[in-house]
Amino acid sequence: MRALYLFSDKTGLSRPKNFQERIIRKLSLSYDLTAKATKSREEFILECQNAISNGYEVVIISGGDGTFNMGCSAIAALPKEKRPIIGYVPTGTCNDSGKTLGIKGVRKALKILKNKKIVDYDICKVNDQYFTFVCAIGQYSDIAYITERREKKFFGRLSYYRIAIKEAFKKKRVQAVVECNDNKYEVITPFVLVMSGLSVGGFKVNFKKSYNDGLFDIYLTKPGLFNGLLHYLFFKARTLHIKTSAAKIHTDQTGEWCIDGERGMKGDIEIECLKSHLRVIGLKK
Description:
The protein has helices spanning 19-28, 41-49, 65-76, 106-115, 143-146, 149-155, 158-168, 229-235, and strands spanning 2-7, 32-37, 58-63, 85-90, 118-126, 129-131, 134-138, 174-180, 183-189, 191-195, 199-200, 203-204, 216-221, 239-244, 246-251, 256-259, 262-266, 269-281. It is α+β, with helices and mostly antiparallel strands.
């Protein structure tokens, strides 16, 4: 299989100088591989969208959650016949995107890519953007992009937890109206959490989540100790959990939604799960 490996050393933890060279060597044993270090967002998106035209069957993305989102979003917007198969080597801070597919680290990713098992994969569309594992607003939702890149590079997810501890003692209230499954839910919550993946912030939340069931999960926790953090991390008590394939959400918030750890849109949102929209190399269930 002809594969294009796209990477950038600007994301993730501090790595040895030959880190990407070792990955490329191993991938070259299983693929007819071309490796490219992208220098800009525009170049990365263009390479993903032109992969089929340039003779590549597979695009292997190396980076964090935001980079994986960027690649999946670029490919999801293409007509079906122009969408390459997606591979993933997680090199970011928390690497939540790939965990639903069993991709839990570089070593595991290389093993999965070697086996070349292709699975259908859902992606969610929110207004005119896409997300692969999380869409959120309210307390804690901005941690991934307000944390300084330098701090993330050297301290990894510990840098997120440092800010989360500060946020835990600042009371936050979000007034939200959620319409889905012919129901309307009006709640006051510290944060609105929409998930299409297994984990967020390195913590497993959706223990029975499938990557191609055509559904996503909405969590609406009641206010409580540490802004309800304990409710959604451990007990799920006092938390409304909704599974749906489409939803409309209105909140009183003026800030951005978090989309896979990056700044997203502002205001009301409409979400639709695009079932089996992509093909990804992962563990079959």
